[in-house]
Amino acid sequence: MSEISRQAYSVLFPVVETLELNEHILRFLDQGGKSLLFGESGEEYVSGRLSKERLERETLSSWHQTIETAVDRGGRLILAADADIAAVHRLQGLAAPLPDRVAAQALSAEALEEICFEMGRGVATVGVNLVLSPTADIVTGNNAWLAGRTLSEDPEVAAAIVRAYVRGVHRAGVKTTLKHFPGHPVLTGDLSTGDARVPLSLNELRAVWAPFLAGIEEGADAVMMGPARFDAVKPAIAGSLSADLMGSLRQELGFKGLVMTCDLDHKSTIGDASLGEVAVAALVAGADLLLLSTKAVPHLDEVAQYIVKAVERGVLDGSRLKAAHAQVCAQAERRLI
């Protein structure tokens, strides 16, 4: 296997919905994959609660067995899960509970940090080392996707919660992810049909960046880009594919860590492109880690091969792939405590 091929696998971030690692995931790890996201079902995502069957099936022992298998195949990995205050907590039942958004808003920063620390200790005990939280979006208008899933409508209140969350989880030795940059204050259309847009200017988006800036100042390790198309850039394009928006994250907000996409097969992101095409476009734009849903997992080899061919054709600069690979590996190797 070539070094370029291993780098191509390393920048893919597949979702596994259960603790059973199928042949596609095991091959992915053998070929150089460095990251797994332990996801949930669509119903669990919408409800914010894990099913009774999952809670009974996924014991601490079964988590340890799965993670041991993954590490045996892939070495040090980014092992991620959601742990949201206002949405789904993937390690419900194994890590301490989090308050709902109203309770979180009423807590002192110190009290909330301690709660997040206790939750983070449980996450670390399971073996997960990165949470895809906290949500830093501010909703100011219609947004069916994030309604009730953000920390506050007030940017300063949300920023204080983000700070407490990042501090507490970091103390427990678990890394954090801010999502979904550059924010979705208003969302028209539907992500699943491809017409989801954020009809705001860049200045209007900047007005609600306080939670993102707070998280970056506290040392958040990763930032997830948004899946909708943004009218702030021309032509309007998904945040996960926008060099301009990733440039704002890097240059204006000073973020130095891992930039990941949202699910690349969100219809509003992928449009009429293939998975390989959208993966290369995300890398060219500046993303380091490419999130692929469970539906895309059977196509991991195809996506990796498309990335390799893009480098060979000169469509993707080899140095860009190498930089993304280095960022992913650095996060996989990095330990906070």
What does this structure look like?
InterPro entries: GH, Glyco_hydro_3_N, Glyco_hydro_3_N_sf, NagZ_Beta-hexosaminidase. Its EC number is 3.2.1.52. It comes from Caballeronia udeis. It catalyses: Hydrolysis of terminal non-reducing N-acetyl-D-hexosamine residues in N-acetyl-beta-D-hexosaminides. The chain has a single domain, classed as TIM Barrel (Alpha-Beta Barrel). The protein is 45% helix and 11% strand. The protein is built from 15 helices and eleven strands. Strands 10-7-5-4-3-2-1-11 form an eight-stranded parallel sheet.
How far from one another are the termini?
A: 34 Å
Overall shape: globular
- CATH level 1 class label: Alpha Beta
How is the CATH topology named? Answer: TIM Barrel
| Largest sheet report | 8 strands, parallel
CATH architecture: Alpha-Beta Barrel
Q: Superfamily at the CATH H level?
A: Glycoside hydrolase, family 3, N-terminal domain
Average pLDDT over all residues: 96
Question: What percentage of the residues does DSSP assign to strands (E)?
Answer: 5-15%
Taking all Cα atoms into account, the compactness measure Rg is: 18 Å
**Total domains, how many?**
1
- Strand neighbour order, sheet with most strands: 10-7-5-4-3-2-1-11
